[in-house]
Amino acid sequence: MSRQALDIVIVGGGIAGCSAAIALTAIGHKVRILEKQAAWRFQSSGIFVYSNGLRSMQQLGVMEDMIAAGFAVPDGRNSYFDHHGAPITDSFYPSADDGKIPAILGIKRAEIHRVLAARMQRSGVQIDLDSSVAALEQDEEGVHLQLTDGRQLSCDLLIGADGVRSVTRALMGLDLAPRYTGFGVWRSVHQRPSELTVKIMMMGPAKRFGIMPISADRLYTFGTVAEPEGRFFDPADWPRLMQERFAEFSGPAAPFLQELDAEAEVLYTAVEEVVLPLPWHRGRVLLIGDAAHASTPFMGQGGAMAIQDAVILARALTCHSDLEGALKVFGEARFGPCQFVQDVSRAVGEAGASEDIANLASRNAELASTAQEKVDGFYTRLAALNDEAEAILSQ
Ligand SMILES: Cc1cc2nc3c(=O)[nH]c(=O)nc-3n(C[C@H](O)[C@H](O)[C@H](O)COP(=O)(O)OP(=O)(O)OC[C@H]3O[C@@H](n4cnc5c(N)ncnc54)[C@H](O)[C@@H]3O)c2cc1C
What we know:
By secondary structure, the protein is α/β, with parallel strands linked by helices. It has 2 domains: 7-43 and 107-178 and 273-362 and 372-393, FAD/NAD(P)-binding domain, CATH 3.50.50.60; 180-269, D-Amino Acid Oxidase, Chain A, domain 2 (2-Layer Sandwich), CATH 3.30.9. It contains 11 helices and 19 strands. The chain has helices at residues 15-26, 51-60, 63-69, 109-123, 167-171, 238-245, 254-258, 290-293, 302-319, 323-353, 360-393, and strands spanning 7-11, 30-34, 46-50, 71-72, 77-82, 87-92, 104-108, 126-128, 133-138, 143-147, 152-155, 157-160, 179-191, 199-203, 208-213, 218-226, 267-273, 281-282, 285-287.
């Protein structure tokens, strides 16, 4: 069903906001992004995009450029080791479309944003940097915004894609603070030895250390560990602290832990979650991405969920001529898959954190016998939930 072109303002130029801008301009709407950062600069290190996220990138027309900028892991192979470097098992993530969509892509976040920005430029998306929303009101005619730089704007639809601490969410009157999950993630970027082409997961005592190729010559590492709430670490200390946190890891982790220094782009993130019940909209204001459903990172799916939000939102607006109906259907279609990812990811993190250190050998044995089954079960269930979402969209 066709509808008249909408004037759309998106708050936040992260993965969700940029993806939505691309998807919505592609179906004829006019989009402006308000991004609070004064420069188009995104915290770096790497990110995984699994085949479901790559499929959404393909639907946005950016998958090939992403693949060229990143590193697709051959056969989607994930090799597990214990923290001393002894192999445990391998598992394989599913590719899609008879292998035309790779199973896992590692890519630098800055590269994702370079590709998305180039696509937005071609689509005529207006990006206002150093800009945000200070107040909003809505009536039958539209949403009326007071911007932080003093300007006033009106639009037909306002999309809050401003992440975990969404200001849009607060301005909608939703009183929801993100939940600290008890985990910190430490990441770093290194030269990639040419022979390191798989995703590596090292299973420590209630800690994980991963290694993932992200380009022809770079890889990133990521370590997860319990950290107390509200802890501030001076960025100047991050390389040393990361080294200390994962000091018991040897094997494949050792060379990268040893070379942690100011050049290694070490980044610390305290992980927060956002669990927002439906509806994700109020009138003409909608939340997408982390602003609505931020997940712990254990399944590497938050970015994929943000991109899929964009694709499904464009579909909902195309299928439903009334805005209220489209936004309602969007939320109903996306809630199931996003909640599933959040629940599985949270359970994986909590199981890891509550490990009995005396039982690492039995944990490893169980992992060896169930790793592939768990991967297959997760992706089969996610696909089934996406099928259910399709049915909701076409009702
Ligand atoms: C440690 C860690 C590792 C992760 N690893 C992966 C992974 O491997 N794979 C994966 O798919 N996902 C991963 N994720 C999840 C993924 O990063 C997020 O789900 C994804 O970035 C969400 O995108 P977003 O655009 O919704 O939010 P964000 O990325 O947070 O973007 C929000 C944007 O809004 C801007 N903004 C914020 N407030 C305002 C405001 N008031 N006004 C204007 N602009 C504003 C910000 O500057 C930013 O540009 C990980 C998350 C963490 C914490």
